[in-house]
Write a structure and sequence with these properties.
single chain, 293 residues, alpha/beta, Alkaline Phosphatase, subunit A, 2 domains, four-stranded antiparallel sheet, three-stranded parallel sheet, 28% helix, 17% strand
Length: 293
């Protein structure tokens, strides 16, 4: 089966939110993983995918991932690197799992999962690998290095299917190949591609929290400054759409959660939002995601 339009990601089109959407079947407003990094006003704490301790805390992850559903039905489960599988909650743990380590190559992942399927009699196995995302971030979508990575992934997938066939497993298994998001290139030759919020609002006096750089900016003004900040940003830049939380389009399914900030600013594809200009040189990733579908 082939999906002609691919897998359409949930908004925001970020890594952790969409892998958790795939695992739970829920929109981001329902499962609470609304971005790769965000502030929870109830905890008065911040989540970041780069903080391994925080990532392992169950309070950030809502909904039920498919490996828990499978275990409740008496199935055996194994997960290799899928976001959310490291949560320190015995009810959530797959039977077999591996803590994320970016140094592990794809062949090791596949060999491990193949052995789990064959030896451990696993009913549900899930695995994650960070390519071609990593290459596109570094080189851009149409770079030769990205093409080479995609060709490598094709060869590894051929190996996976061949090994499943050799081990007499292929006819017993349903395989889904999914992705968390698409990607686009920043308009690096356009001097207007970088949008600085400090050009339009008083960050020091009116803002409590705002990201340093992103395709989708979650803005937390001081309580009495929400309308002022919104009016200042509403028509500030033709390449940025700005919404009050309650006015976010319904198609985003992105308003009914306390973690979603009072104002959301969304850059057009190829543009990027910054808190303010930096004195040091920008080390921008050419390939980006997070935008409106």
């Amino acid at each position: 089966v082939h999906a002609p339009f691919g897998l359409i990601p949930a908004f925001t089109t970020k890594t952790f939110p969409n892998f958790w959407t795939i695992a739970t079947g829920l929109y981001e407003e329902s499962h609470g993983m609304i971005d790769n990094s965000f502030l929870d006003p109830n905890f008065n704490e911040s989540f970041s995918l780069f903080n391994k301790k925080v990532v392992s805390e169950a309070k950030w992850w809502k909904g039920e991932p498919i490996w828990v559903t499978a275990k409740r039905q008496g199935k055996s489960t194994a997960v290799f690197f899928w976001p959310g599988s490291e949560v320190q909650n015995y009810k959530w743990k797959p039977d077999l799992w591996r803590r994320y380590d970016s140094r592990v190559d794809l062949r090791e992942i596949i060999e491990t999962v193949l052995n789990w399927l064959q030896i451990e009699n696993i009913n549900l196995a899930m695995m994650y690998y960070n390519q071609p995302d990593k290459s596109v971030h570094k080189f851009g979508t149409f770079h030769t290095k990205v093409r080479q990575m995609v060709e490598f992934l094709d060869r590894v997938l051929y190996y996976l299917f061949a090994e499943l066939q050799r081990r007499d497993l292929l006819h017993k298994i349903n395989i889904l190949i999914v992705s968390d998001h698409g990607m686009t290139d920043l308009k690096v030759n356009d001097e207007n591609a970088l949008i600085y919020l400090s050009d339009y609002i008083d960050i020091e006096n009116d803002i409590i929290d705002i990201p340093e750089s992103t395709a989708v900016a979650a803005i937390l003004p001081k309580p009495d400054k929400v309308e002022k900040v919104y009016q200042s940003l509403k028509y500030a830049n033709k390449h940025m759409k700005v919404y009050l939380k309650e006015k976010i389009p319904e198609r985003f399914h992105y308003k009914h959660n306390d973690r979603i900030m009072p104002i959301i600013a969304i850059a057009d594809e190829g543009y990027f939002i910054f808190r303010k200009p930096r004195k040091e040189p920008l080390n921008l990733k050419i390939g980006q995601h997070g935008y409106d579908n």
